[in-house]
Amino acid sequence: MTGEEYVDSDAAWAIAEGRHGDPFSVLGPHKRGSDWVITAFVPGAERLWVLSGKKVEEATPYPGIAGLFTHRQPRKAAYRLRASGHGTEWEFEDPFRFGPVLGEMDEYLLGEGTHKRLWQVLGAHCITHEGVEGVHFAVWAPNAERVSVVGNFNIWDGRRHPMRRRGPTGVWEIFVPGLTEGEAYKYEIRGPGGVLLPLKADPAGFGSEHPPATASVVRRIGGAFHDADWMAARHNHNSIDAPISVYEVHLGSWRRAPGDRMLSYTELAEQLVDYVADMGFTHIECLPVSEFPFDGSWGYQPVGLFAPTIRHGTPSEFRAFVDAAHRKGLGVLLDWVPGHFPSDAHGLAQFDGTALYEHQDPREGFHQDWNTLIYNYGRVEVKNFLVSNALYWLEEYHVDGLRVDAVASMLYRDYSRKAGEWIPNRDGGRENYEAIDVLRAMNITAYGECPGVMTVAEESTAFPGVSRPANWGGLGFGFKWNMGWMNDTLSYMQKDPLFRKYHHHKMTFGLVYAWSENFILPISHDEVVHGKGSMLAKMPGDGDQKFANLRAFYGYMWGHPGKKLLFMGQEFAQGAEWNHNQSLDWHQLDLPPHAGVQALVRDLNHLYRKTPALHVNDCRPEGFEWIEANDAEASVYAWLRKGRAGDPMVAVAVNMTPVERSYRLGLPAAGKWVEVMNTDSAVYGGGNRGNMGGVKAEAVPSQGRPYSALVTLPPLSAVYFMQG
What we know:
Structural class: alpha+beta
């Protein structure tokens, strides 16, 4: 037999030319009449043998097609193949003899777009299948005519491992025996009309090559954690009642190793975790760690949403970093970017030759600000991909929360667009209903599947109910960045103190809407890039006054209702704007003013954490009361912070002029009020002017209160008094 009676000539040529859309219907063992026929395509093979048990039988070459062989046997049996050609011989398992890995339930959920844990079925998994070890690959490409997995293991030849299409799901899969962790791979996709696309990285791959290389890498993602105590209690650390002070970090430039090398996750697990714990912060927030091709995007243009960037190590090493933070009592938050993705040829753009993850119409699917593509949120598979990705980081890596980037760009169809450049929703409005649905679904899934986590929205508009529960009509986030507060306060701080009285209520306006959301006060990376200068450089005055202004601002911020966030370097008043290509300027800590600011932030964090009045009611109006909001002439602000019944109250007074003031401060209770914070203290680099440890409230009415004390407000400073 020559094989032609078993394999149709058109099918044979389609296999040999990599055109066949259903290779498993031809290749591998198939019942033909009373016999079983094995068909194998092995480019480069001149001869082929079938090894079954102790039997070794030579297969028959298919006429006219090099590398295609058939072999007839009387019964179905396990086998291996041995090939020879060009002076060499090799033996291997035939991937086409193995049955499907994905089950009917997987197919059903994939087709419906409701598979919560998409990463468990898509991507590359090291498994044992039908008694053989190897890697299972699965990818969604519904409009492809043929999909193959390629890598060094098959000379990047798409004819060698074409995949099996799984019915109407649009998913393709193959089990490749003999592969192990560390194997680089991509998908070769033949799109509609037979167009061969650029090789694609795996959208659900768990690892990547080091940039600028762009292949996915087979990685195991399981592993042991040692953070049971943290996980059992983390709801206490992430609630609106908790002290939350976040240290935002770009892992690649926080500190560099000798030779200007980026630190590994293993090194960060020691150096960064120890530093953040010592500084009194409660959470580390990492700029995006999902794999990204371009360093200059800081991770905000991700391609591998399921892969921790290899720049710092493997998935298991990233897991160990999170574990180390937990064992030090620190939460870990990740920046998550569902708002857009880059158009890199190896990424999601035109993934199967069509607008699969994105919109076809650029009025819906292109971000002009960032030259990136927008997900088609209305497509159930895309929604499933994003929601499942959020759950992946929370479940597989024990991450404590996600800060969602650029939420405003998702909520509005006309975001940063002129008239005629956008398409209204079905009601003629600007709200993006589909994106809103994705965000709600993400929050419902995150909080429902991983109790105790937190989600945070970077949202710069007045969209209602961002941090209201989804079942109350909100988006369902736990917290929202207070961008209005940030803009107003930094605008005020940059003014010469002489003119601040004309802008006095920029510092009070945040209290008008402070309880409309659960707010985090963010002084983030966005405030120290693109020519905006460092926090220190924003401050007016000479050298000493710049430091005093910054200390006063931090004192104001930590006394203000809302959780706290600082970007790395701001805690020691780095002089230069942040540069992602180099380490922070740690040498500046040799200078007393910088070391003083660092000591202040450390002490503010510890005071904030141990003082219920300063954090319990961060998000409730009963925790705040103005003492003096209107003294614009003196540029003085004063307020009370209150915790639960019985917690000592804290009075905060801030002087935003370079003039020392003796100031009568109205207080709600008589007795001793201890000065627990003074940003003008000498240990912080100040002039050491203050109140000798505290004041005594006397029965002299002031500012609408029955008691008051004459307090010293040092120039450009904040002082806190706690009820003694």
